[in-house]
Amino acid sequence: MAQSRDGVAVEAQGLTVHYGQFKAVDGLSIQIRTGEIFGLLGHNGAGKTTAVRTLAGLLRPTAGWARVNGLDPQEQGPQLRKTIGVSTESPAVDERMTGEATLAFFAELYDLPPAAIPERIGRLLERFDLVEAGKRRVGEYSKGMRQRLALARALLHDPAVLFFDEPTSGLDPVATRQTNEGIIEMTRGQGKTVILCTHNLTQAQQLCDRVAVLEHGRVIAVGTPHELARDLRVDWSVIVEIDAQDLAAARRALAQLPGVEVVDPDTGGGMTLRLELLLRDGVPVPRVVAHLAAAQVGIHAVVPDEATLEDVYFALQEVQA
Amino acid sequence: MNWRAIRAVVRRDLTLVRQSKAVMIPLVTVPLVLLVILPLVATLAPNYVNIPGLDDLDALLGQMPEDVRAGLAGAGDQERLVVLLTVYLFAPLFLLIPTMVANVIAADSFAGEKERKTLEALLYSPMTDREIVTAKLLAPWLAAMAVTFVGFVLYAIVVNAGAWPVMERIFFPTPMWLLLVLWVAPAVAALGLGGAVLVSLRVGTVQEAYQLGGLVVLPVVALMVSQATGLLFFTTTVVFVIGLLVWLLALGLLLIAVRSFDRPRLTVQA
């Protein structure tokens, strides 16, 4: 497994790809750490697939440079592609071949030791629940089975960096969950780096350590979903459980804190009550808690309900508009 | 060069061809008609029917080169007819086989992979451009040669067996035919291949590749016409020169095809 320098698996600086006059990728600068799950988010045509193709050495950049596992995609494409696995949005598996034959074919392209191939294929077919289907032609597979076969193919040569382009497209909920768990296992358990191109913001929220949002080929935001929400000052809410008798004190204290709105006090009549607070303009939760504590409000629990990646994504779209 | 990967692609492409009825039907029927049925009819017919125009054989032979005429001196009309048809007039027809086989398989291999959306996975593999193009050229060429050699053996058997009542000896293959099979057929296969690859890199479907790639049979048709009209007759020397010219043309076409194999462009098309 190729190791990158200084714990950076993928790096790009000013990476630009033009199709004629059209800028598919425009000055992409990112650093993806080894073992990280990094999301590339953006709508269709935002430049995600072009970015992956350029990082894999399939497309020539118009400007800028990139390194994947310390290798230059342009100068060292074949070596680089031995260290990466790619699952494209369309599974790209031949309908006339069986699942087993497909994997055996790619095992030879990746020059795997012949003796190790049957065991490796068997393990992957089992992992992706394709043991029975392995001997059947891919033409008989459902879309989800083809997608799983493409994922198995991407993992066949044990690559250090994985590019997954919409890996759960067409999968049912069970297969989606298995795939997501598999992605987490690959990074947390095996130290692989995953670059996940997706429209599925819930999936990105669940899986990604950090995300980059692309718009018209440009990165318009990079960071953890939390950082993005904070930087964008996206509203989020927090549930604070306090002594019921301190409600008035809490209201007075919060009224002095700009950007905090009491949404829904649950005055059910018990000893404690749940106070839902809407935090605007990136007001941090600790500041709210400190303010309440200073006002002698008895606090039993604080449950932040942070902005989702979806909130962040649409906030970014509004900013761009 | 990673020959293991090249062999894998060749093997896979040929396996896929065997599984495709659309490709296999012309690959079996055309050689069967041209190399078995047609010579069988040509060799057997003079025994059973009166061929009209047999009287003009002398006139036709008169157009032929001296050494061909000398070879047929003293032979009967039926014998001369059999030799004229099976050795000379069918020779350019035989060249259609390697051209067609290489063309059809190359179209399926290049344009077909694009059409089936499987090319991208190959482009993401560690194979270099040169390795991919080598594998993609080798598969159709090897298949064309295999079909050609098998077809030639069948043709030789059919011609000798069918003409036995007339010839009463094994008269085929002649040195000219050996040159045709070993020197010219590989060249026309390469020509068919070059044409198909050039076309396939530019079109999106196998059907388009078949239609445009089929133009490479035109030089072979020209040879057939020129021989039938007596303009150019297939002697050993002529066949050697034809082979040389076709090789030059084919290598030029293949060179352009190899240089046209551009990973970024194919990636965008994939």
Description:
The complex is a heterodimer of chains A (321) and B (270). Chain A is of the alpha/beta class and 321 residues long. Chain A is built from eleven helices and 13 strands. Chain A has a six-stranded mixed β-sheet, sandwiched between helices. A four-stranded antiparallel β-sheet of chain A has the order 11-12-10-13, covered by helices on one side. Chain A has a three-stranded antiparallel β-sheet with strand order 2-1-4, covered by helices on one side. The longest helix of chain A has 17 residues, at 173-189. Chain A is elongated, with a radius of gyration of 24 Å. The mean pLDDT of chain A is 86. Chain B has 270 residues and is mostly helical. In chain B, helix 2 runs parallel beside helix 9. Chain B is elongated. The relative contact order of chain B is 0.15. Chains A and B meet through helix 2 and helix 3 of A and helix 1, helix 8 and helix 15 of B.
Q: Could you give a short account of the major beta sheet of chain A?
A: 6 strands, mixed
Binned, the helix content of chain B reads over 70%
Q: Give me the count of strands of chain B.
A: 0
Helix amount of chain A: 25-40%
Number of beta strands of chain A: 13
Give the assembly state of these chains.
heterodimer
Characterize the overall form of chain B: elongated
Spatial strand order of the main sheet of chain A: 5-6-7-3-8-9
Q: Which two protein chains have the largest interface (Cβ within 8 Å of the partner's Cβ), and how many residues from each? A: A-B, 30 and 28 residues
Uncertain runs of chain B: none
Strand-residue proportion of chain A:
25-35%
Could you give the order of the helices and strands of chain B? Answer: HHHHHHHHHHHHHHH
Largest sheet of chain B: none
Q: What form of chain A results from the Cα inertia axes?
A: elongated
How large is the count of helical segments of chain B? 15
How widely separated are the two ends of chain B? Answer: 24 Å
Q: What Rg of chain B do the Cα atoms give?
A: 21 Å
Strand content of chain B: under 5%
Structural class of chain A: alpha/beta
What ranges of chain A have pLDDT less than 50 throughout 5 or more consecutive residues?
Answer: none
Number of helices of chain A: 11
